[in-house]
Amino acid sequence: MLSDAHAHLNDKAFDNDIMSVYEDCLNKGVGIIVNSAWDRASSEKALELAEKYDNMYFTVGIHPHNAIEAKENDLYALIELSRHNKCVAWGEVGLDYHYDFSPRDMQKGFFGDQIAIANELSLPLVLHLREAYQDANEILDKNIDKLNNGVLLHCYSGSMELARDYYNKFGCYYSFGGAITFNKNNKKSVLEVISKDRLLLETDCPYMTPVPFRGERNTPALLGLVRDRMACDLGLTAVEVENLTYQNIQRFYRLGEK
Ligand SMILES: [Zn+2]
Ligand SMILES: [Zn+2]
């Protein structure tokens, strides 16, 4: 069974055909989908999807891109949504200095606040970090006592050294999506340095569409392409990758308790 640790079926790109996308996912063997949120409205929509579809779960949170438009009481509203039994984590949260859509101080403020909230609620964290690893390190180090519920770095794009470092310090999980199919086949993969009990598959759909469908809308139905590339990079079979990532997603999001 395929499991998508980080999707956005709550994105407007799926408004018109979510039913057929969902059926397509089932037909392609996708058994678990975790939809991540980026603001209040997307958190509410992710909850609605989780109530409607059996194998969907969700996270709530304010993405660094959206910090700038967040309202004062949004975090309180998210705390209420997070009490739903299919809410499995807080995220995606973090820092994005590639686009800098929100001022950096504001990004850092929301990041620190949401680490504290997730800890209060005993929820794991889903992190989005881009070109901001140094500041992220400082914030994570400062909050290390608040990271005991698990940390997932989605769409990791840092170095191999840092991946090892984060694992050693914070026990991080890593989810990989279409981006791993962009690399040339002979390039050494960051996957190889990550402990196998920390690897997850993700789509980040509608973004990050894997080769050979780049430019089209991504959906969890294409997750098999990422699985195949992960299997190839790690010298495993497709079934081994599915089993491994299934066990890991269950453990990270504590799905057995839901
Ligand atoms: Zn992200
Ligand atoms: Zn995302």
Keywords:
258 residues, alpha/beta, TIM Barrel, eight-stranded parallel beta sheet, 17% strand, globular, binds zinc ion
What is the correct CATH architecture? Answer: Alpha-Beta Barrel
Q: Uncertain regions: pLDDT < 50 for 5+ in a row?
A: none
Biggest sheet record:
8 strands, parallel
Which superfamily, in CATH terms, is the homologous superfamily?
Metal-dependent hydrolases
Rg over CA atoms, rounded to whole Å, is: 17 Å
Q: How much helix, percentage-wise, in residues?
A: 25-40%
Strand order of the largest sheet: 1-2-3-4-5-6-7-8
Q: Total helix count? A: 8
Strand segment tally: 8
- Helix/strand-derived class? alpha/beta
Specify the overall morphology. Answer: globular
The name CATH uses for the topology is TIM Barrel
Quaternary structure of the protein: single chain
Which sequence of SSEs, written as H and E, runs from N to C? Answer: EHEHEHEHEHEHEEHH
